[in-house]
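User: Here's a chain of 194 residues. Predict its fold as tokens.
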Amino acid sequence: MIPRSLIIAVALLLAVVVAMGVYLRRVQRQAGAVLPPAASVLPVPPPASGPTETVVLYVADDAMGILRARSAKIPLPGGRQQRAEELLRALLRIYQQPGAAHPLPPASDIRSIYLIDPGAAVVDVNAAFADQHRSGILSEQLTINSLLETLAANVPGIQRVSILVEGKRRDTLAGHADLSDWFDVAEMRQAGRQ
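Assistant: Prediction complete.
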């Protein structure tokens, strides 16, 4: 026969194991509520290095429905691709400030820009840029036009631009503005002048 004290000791140990499991599950849930999901945590890009240059950024104004040319002094690296990335990141920083005339989500970022065959650029944005963008044709089109105008004004020779989200083609930015094809910079500029 099993001694009564051994049965009590095993029962107590089993109760402690169950209580610890419940406690650990509760702590995991609390930690999940406190920590942001991994998708919203962005890697911090290294600060741009290079000489400070005056550039023209085309900043969208939602209230007026227009782009405004704005000069800015930013450090730009020597490589053409890195320069293009820093230009668009400087533009996004304007949109991410409190009270911006064309607000974008704080997690929005340019993943990379690829300058391919003469005159073509591919802009790869992160998922937050598209998923958290305000929906509406004017807001979405102003964002696209702002990116294109800023690139065309500061990186000579860009004639066509494609926008990807997380490295993949997407039909629309946030439900309205078409991202499925290349944007012709000259055509976009002509449409903006009418």
